[in-house]
Amino acid sequence: MKNIYVLRLGHRPERDKRVTTHVALVARAFGARGVFIEGEDNRLTENIKKVLEEWGGGSYFKVEMISDPKKIVNLWKRKGGKVVHLTMYGVNLPDMIDRIEHEDNLLIIVGAQKVEGWYYHHADYNIAVSNQPHSEIASLAIILDRIYKGEELNIMFEDNKISVIPMERGKKVIRRDG
Ligand SMILES: C[S@@+](CC[C@H](N)C(=O)[O-])C[C@H]1O[C@@H](n2cnc3c(N)ncnc32)[C@H](O)[C@@H]1O
């Protein structure tokens, strides 16, 4: 698994609770190592940690609320990682995937509302997942899928308490803790 982190900008607790939670869940499920969330929302991090505890990933997936996202970007670049900013104004993903698929250290930035120009200038790549407006959840899922070429759908979490027994109909889960 690559060292991919997601930076979620501008989280507003009252408005973005659900979307930011889904950004974090997609990051975890599809092969990122963690998520930095700009803002203050302890309830959100607790909820994500509960999912990690039950469904696994807690031993390595990092969830952190942060107040200075520019510092995260600068630090990531200083350590030699590449920064991808997902924006509908960027270059469409099919024309950029060759440039990023071999990178092992990626910070993927997604916004909530209008993203400051600073991020457009400091990102190594401004990438669109189609040049149509949609959602940070969708764009994150698709870029991770293209980077991992579908392999992320087979990710297993060894430190899980619950897992699904896949079946064509019905629902079955097993619990390791009884
Ligand atoms: C709901 S959008 C709001 C974007 C905002 N109106 C702007 O001008 O930047 C929130 C986030 O979704 C992501 N997003 C939305 N559409 C996208 C697209 N077509 N390609 C890549 N990312 C997209 C971007 O990360 C964006 O910051």
UniProtKB/TrEMBL annotation:
EC id: 2.1.1.206
SUPFAM superfamilies membership: alpha/beta knot
Any Gene Ontology biological process: tRNA nucleoside ribose methylation
Species in which this protein is naturally found: Metallosphaera tengchongensis
SUBUNIT field: Homodimer.
Localization of this protein: Cytoplasm
Example GO molecular function: tRNA (cytidine(56)-2'-O)-methyltransferase activity
Function recorded in the entry: Specifically catalyzes the AdoMet-dependent 2'-O-ribose methylation of cytidine at position 56 in tRNAs.
Family annotation (InterPro entries): Alpha/beta_knot_MTases, tRNA_m1G_MTases_N, tRNA_mtfrase_aTrm56
Protein name: tRNA (cytidine(56)-2'-O)-methyltransferase
Keywords: Cytoplasm, Methyltransferase, S-adenosyl-L-methionine, Transferase, tRNA processing
Pfam families in the cross-refs: Trm56
UniProt-annotated binding residues for S-adenosyl-L-methionine: L86, V129, S130, N131, Q132, P133, H134, S135, E136
Family membership: Belongs to the aTrm56 family.
S-adenosyl-L-methionine in keyword set: yes
GO CC list: cytoplasm
Broadest EC class assigned to this enzyme: transferase
Reaction catalyzed: cytidine(56) in tRNA + S-adenosyl-L-methionine = 2'-O-methylcytidine(56) in tRNA + S-adenosyl-L-homocysteine + H(+)
